[in-house]
Q: What sequence folds into this?
């Protein structure tokens, strides 16, 4: 009666965290702080509400499935500006599709590019640790998910090229997150060049999740389209996913887009036209204005930089702390992530995410098991308070 396609995934990370902490009372008399959910709580521009209001009549109309002309133009202009793309590489008509946040796009792309299983089961490559939608997408499309370690030993990025030919031959889709959640690693130009070549050699689709592309420390991370624009200038096999959730701190707006290979974007848009959610007209209008504005994004980056300066002071070189190249996450090596999560809740009223819940594998085979993920999404004072409590709690002998 039910398809059961996602059954193999078990509970998601937040359900598992709720279950873990349900057995533990939080420290009494201390304000509870949620550092588990990567939900930006930064102020977002006031013009969002004004534009939504100004476009209120559009609530009464079906929105354009491929996005309004101003929305698509703003996206193309943003990508050109941010990634220094040459004129003409992207065509607003052919290379862009709006998404209700990047998660739905990251999930649904698998439905479009993974063929029905024939003699051999198609493979979807997923970095490990990973964002949960990738695994759901692979299973939902009836593919075999192959989790590829992205650990300290591999520079926190997956080494897809090291996979055996028997796997690469069956691969139809490969996810990469850069900057990556949870480790905050950024793929270099040469890494991306090699990966794009690998995808073309084996004819699989690369889904590059760049939703943290604006949340960086020093240098703007290179993007996959930027790499594609280099000699040759072909977008073949490559689709990037972007979102306003992190860039503009509006996770509730549900606004993002996919851009890249025209053939894939066209097939994706056709597929989405049957059933997928559509970005409402007033939301498209506000989104276009957000993509056009960089000032609020610079202010957001500055706010995160201040919090990372505190993290560096508080955690220094303890608990494997390293300043991430991007994202707002701290990925701490604490020995046993689940145990540390329970302690931080019971001794300090802090809710963090065990790394094991963001990674695939049992016991020592789970690369996230020794870690916790801490999201620096609150204001500076709250974050400083939380980091102080983390430092004091984990320092104490257990
Ligand atoms: C790595 C990664 N990709 C995608 C998303 C989805 O974000 P949204 O659907 O809000 O664009 C998230 C959200 O936390 C994420 O961490």
A:
């Amino acid at each position: 009666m039910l398809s059961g396609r996602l059954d193999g995934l078990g509970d998601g990370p937040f359900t598992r965290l709720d279950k873990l902490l349900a057995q533990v009372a939080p420290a009494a008399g201390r304000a509870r702080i949620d550092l588990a959910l990567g939900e930006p709580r930064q102020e977002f521009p006031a013009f969002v509400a004004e534009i939504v209001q100004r476009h209120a009549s559009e609530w009464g109309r079906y929105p354009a499935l491929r996005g309004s002309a101003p929305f698509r133009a703003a996206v193309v202009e943003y990508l050109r500006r941010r990634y220094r793309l040459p004129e003409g590489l992207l065509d607003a008509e052919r290379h862009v599709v709006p998404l209700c946040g990047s998660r739905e796009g990251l999930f649904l792309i698998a439905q479009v590019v993974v063929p029905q299983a024939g003699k051999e089961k198609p493979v979807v490559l997923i970095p490990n640790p990973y964002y949960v939608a990738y695994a759901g997408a692979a299973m939902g499309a009836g593919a075999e998910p192959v989790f590829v370690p992205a650990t300290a030993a591999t520079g926190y990025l997956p080494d897809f090229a090291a996979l055996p030919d028997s796997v690469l031959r069956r691969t139809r889709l490969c996810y990469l997150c850069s900057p990556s959640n949870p480790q905050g690693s950024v793929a270099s130009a040469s890494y991306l060049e090699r990966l794009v070549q690998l995808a073309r050699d084996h004819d699989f689709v690369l889904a590059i999740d760049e939703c943290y592309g604006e949340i960086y420390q020093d240098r703007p991370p290179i993007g996959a389209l930027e790499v594609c624009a280099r000699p040759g200038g072909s977008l073949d096999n490559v689709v990037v996913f972007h979102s306003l959730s992190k860039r503009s701190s509006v996770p509730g707006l549900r606004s993002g887009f996919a851009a890249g290979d025209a053939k894939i974007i066209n097939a994706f848009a056709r597929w989405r036209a049957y059933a997928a959610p559509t970005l409402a007209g007033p939301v498209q209008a506000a989104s276009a204005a957000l993509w056009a504005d960089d000032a609020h994004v610079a202010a957001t980056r500055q706010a995160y930089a201040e919090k990372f300066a505190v993290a560096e002071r508080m955690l220094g070189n303890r608990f494997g702390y390293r300043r991430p190249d991007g994202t707002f996450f701290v990925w701490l090596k604490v020995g046993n992530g689940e145990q540390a999560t329970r302690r931080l809740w019971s001794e300090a009223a802090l809710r963090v995410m065990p790394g094991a819940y963001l990674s695939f594998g049992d016991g020592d085979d789970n690369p996230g098991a020794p870690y916790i993920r801490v999201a620096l999404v609150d204001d500076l004072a709250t974050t400083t308070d939380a980091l102080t409590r983390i430092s004091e709690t984990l320092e104490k002998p257990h």
User: Anything to note?
Assistant: The chain has 14 helices and twelve strands. The chain has two domains: 7-43+296-395, 47-293. The chain has a mean pLDDT of 95.
